[in-house]
Automatic annotation (TrEMBL):
Annotated PROSITE patterns: 4FE4S_FER_1, 4FE4S_FER_2
Protein name according to UniProt: 4Fe-4S ferredoxin-type domain-containing protein
UniProt-listed Pfam families: Fer4_22
Keyword Zinc-finger: no
Keywords: Iron, Iron-sulfur, Metal-binding
Domain 4Fe-4S ferredoxin-type: 204-236, 286-314
One MF annotation (Gene Ontology) recorded for this entry: metal ion binding
Domain of life from the UniProt record: Bacteria
Species for this entry: Candidatus Woykebacteria bacterium RBG_16_43_9
Length: 331
């Protein structure tokens, strides 16, 4: 049976969820939309531009304590609080579904998995394409300021069973799907992208020479990407040195320090090396390991790159050069 909820009842739904969960959602702050803990459900942004930081921050935090040593005893850090990520768009939802595969690959990331076990994902779709194979509940915008409930898990079905959701006698048409962007169309053929990017390293290196000069090596493309997961470890001690914590922090493979090892050797010594590696991991290694590029076309890396690098344009040039130079080859 089709279930719908009025937009006016969204704050009531969030208040219900807050009774037993922390709820994080897109809210307006300083003329920007950011994911944050919800205090006032009326301030949730239901129609918003893509946030700078993706909701992966709740599963792979910018900094997290892994364990602590006190008085020569190791204390495990336990994650207990249940939470809901509400209002993420379908691209960010698809990224989390992909991260589930990456972090679940042996050896599995137990900290990520624990957070996913404690989480509920409720996405909002407004003219977006497709339904990701994951998440718990999708609220699809339909006419008359309402949302159609698409429950994907038992958690989602339980929420859609609340009295706030009403049975609808007629299946309302969703808003027309937005046309695919050029990057979204390219990502439909992840194999072609992977072949072209791998081929370009030796056969079309000029583009990487040029990008290596343009890239500032700031790491912003990695930090804002919903599918990048570069990290490093730091040990932090209290002032009196009685407590030492092992922490995992975000890192970026485009930073010069990322590939530096003992003795000062750097096995990716140039920005060209580092920037190509970023592309290789996303579009070649991602395809080889998981069958699709590690990109959901959210546009963050292009929007926030201070050097103005556009990966859509880069991929288009690389693919065109590859197709002119040689027939399609298989891995």
């Amino acid at each position: 049976m089709l279930k719908v909820i009025s937009q006016n009842d969204i704050p009531n739904l969030v208040n219900h969820l807050k009774k037993s969960n922390d709820v994080f959602a897109p809210v307006s702050k300083n003329n920007e939309t950011v994911f944050d803990k919800v205090d006032d459900p009326a301030k949730i942004a239901l129609n918003y531009e893509t946030t700078m930081l993706p909701p992966k921050i709740y599963f792979l935090p910018p900094e997290e304590e892994l364990f602590r040593v006190t008085n020569q005893r190791v204390r495990e850090i336990k994650i207990k609080r249940r939470f809901v990520v509400f209002g993420l768009n379908l691209k960010d939802l698809a990224a989390i579904v992909y991260l589930d595969q990456i972090m679940g690959k042996d050896p599995a990331d137990l900290f990520y998995q624990r957070r996913r076990e404690l989480s509920t994902l409720i996405a909002i779709s407004e003219g977006q394409t497709g339904v990701p194979a994951g998440g718990d509940l999708i609220l699809e915008k339909i006419p008359r300021d309402s949302f159609r409930a698409i429950a994907l898990t038992e958690k989602g079905r339980e929420i859609a069973g609340l009295d706030l959701f009403k049975e609808a006698s007629v299946d309302e048409e969703a808003k027309p799907q937005k046309p695919l962007s050029k990057l979204e169309k390219m990502l439909l053929d992840s194999e072609l992208i992977a072949q072209a990017v791998e081929w370009s390293r030796e056969n079309y290196s000029k583009i990487w020479d040029d990008l290596g000069k343009l890239c500032l090596g700031c790491g912003i493309c990695t930090y804002v990407c919903p599918l990048c997961y570069c990290t490093s470890s730091e040990d932090k001690t209290s002032f009196d040195q009685s407590i030492c914590s092992r922490c995992r922090v975000w890192d970026a493979c485009t930073l010069s320090s990322f590939a530096q090892v003992g003795g000062g050797h750097n096995f990716r010594p140039t920005q060209k090396n580092r920037y190509y590696n970023w592309f290789y991991h996303k579009f070649v290694r991602g395809y080889k390991e998981f069958g699709q590029a590690q990109c959901v076309a959210c546009g963050r890396c292009q929007k926030y790159c201070p050097a103005g690098i556009n990966i859509e344009t880069v991929l288009e040039e690389v693919i065109n050069a590859f197709q002119k130079a040689c027939p399609i080859r298989k891995f």
